[in-house]
Amino acid sequence: MTPQAESVLELFRSRGAYLEGHFRLTSGLHSAQYLQSALVLQHPDAAERLGRMLAEQLRQKADGEIQLVVSPALGGLIIGHEVARALHARFLFTERDAATKKMALRRGFQVTSGETAVVVEDVITTGGSTQDVIEILRAAGVRVLAAGSIIDRSGGQADVGVGRVALATLQVKSHTPEDCPLCAEGVPVAKPGSRPV
Ligand code: ZN
To answer: Which structural domain, as residue segments, surrounds residue 156?
Structure first.
């Protein structure tokens, strides 16, 4: 792990946003790790610093000037905004329709054919949300130069079809309670937010 990734994870740990143990996630699945980036991003100084770091990596990955930063709501809002600040770019976000689950640019956001963009999330797992945003932008003629996240919990596996960067890459596995190796070992399960075990 790079020194930068170590320092990012240490920041998450110090804010209680990255716990190791045995957790029951809101999905009902069990995991040996718990990540909640909102606990880091509630501190604007930390959000600004992470945004600058991610902006630098995106600048290196992207071929050309980045005019737009676009994030899927809600998770990507704070970090996307900070990346855009660091890049002196505009910041837009997409939202998912509650009924149809279809993602769209709303609130009068306009993009122009030929503009360049990067897509930013807080945590990438499968890359599905980032891919949805890329599709919307490409349909409008926007050139998507790269994608980035603070944390990549796919172990580097998520493929979104453009160059991708992350400040820290983890391999986070989750299991149903029946298949959970920690349950099999008899390790007590905790709900995130309670004290780390
Ligand atoms: Zn378990």
So the answer is: 3-184
Instruction: Compute the distance from residue 44 Cα to the ligand 1 centre, in Å.
Output: 34
Q: Looking at the domain assignment, is residue 195 inside a domain?
A: no
Neighbours of 6 (CB within 10 A): 11
Q: How many domains does the chain have?
A: 1
The DSSP output letter for 114 is: T
Instruction: Using a CB cutoff of 5 Å, list residues around ligand 1, an ion.
Output: 30, 180, 182-183
Q: What is the CATH number of the domain that holds 31?
A: 3.40.50.2020
Cα 163 to chain centroid, rounded: 15
Flag whether 194 is in a domain: no
> Tens digits of per-residue pLDDT, 61-118?
998 999 999 999 999 999 999 999 999 999 999 999 889 989 999 999 999 999 999 9
pTM of the model as a whole = 0.91
pLDDT for residue 108: 96
> 123 φ, ψ to 5°?
-130, 130
